[in-house]
Amino acid sequence: MLQECQQLRVDDVGGQRWSAKNYPGGYTSYNSVNRMHEVSPTFAELQRRLLRHVRSFASSLEFDLGAPRADHD
Asked: In whole angstroms, what is the distance from residue 53 CA to residue 44 CA?
């Protein structure tokens, strides 16, 4: 995952521009690459693992998250 994130930083020209203006000295893909889980098996696996915990936590608080959307399951 670290290697993939480092490569994203190199490839993400939009994120570099946004970060230079809004996040001096740092980098974020915020607002430039927000669908990584759809193009990267690494991030798809991370999403799958995190969603299990999110659903469990929400359930323990008696939150109703509704039916999972097809693009987020």
From this structure: 15
Alpha-carbon radius of gyration of the chain: 15
For the chain, what percentages of helix, strand and coil (3-state, to nearest 5) are there?
65, 0, 35
Contacts of 32 (CB under 8 A, 6+ apart): 12, 14, 15, 18
The answer to whether 4 and 42 are in contact (CB under 8 A) is: yes
pLDDT digits (tens, 9 = 90+) for 2-52: 998 888 888 888 888 888 999 888 888 877 788 888 888 999 999 999 999
Q: What's this model's pTM, rounded to 2 decimal places?
A: 0.64
